[in-house]
Amino acid sequence: MDDRGGGSFVAVRRISQGLDRGNTCHSTSAEVVAGSAAWLGRGLSCVCAQRRESDARPSFDLTPAQEECLQRLQSRIEVSYDSSIPEHQEALRALWNASFPEEELRDLISEQWKEMGWQGKDPSTDFRGGGFISLENLLFFARNYPKSFQDLLRKQEGDRALWEYPFAVAGVNITFMLIQMLDLEAVKPRSMAGAIFLKFLSENESAFDLLYCITFKLMDNQWLAMHASYMDFNTVMKSTRRQLERELLLEDVSRLEDLPSYSLLTR
Question: pTM of whole model > 0.90?
Answer without folding.
Answer: no
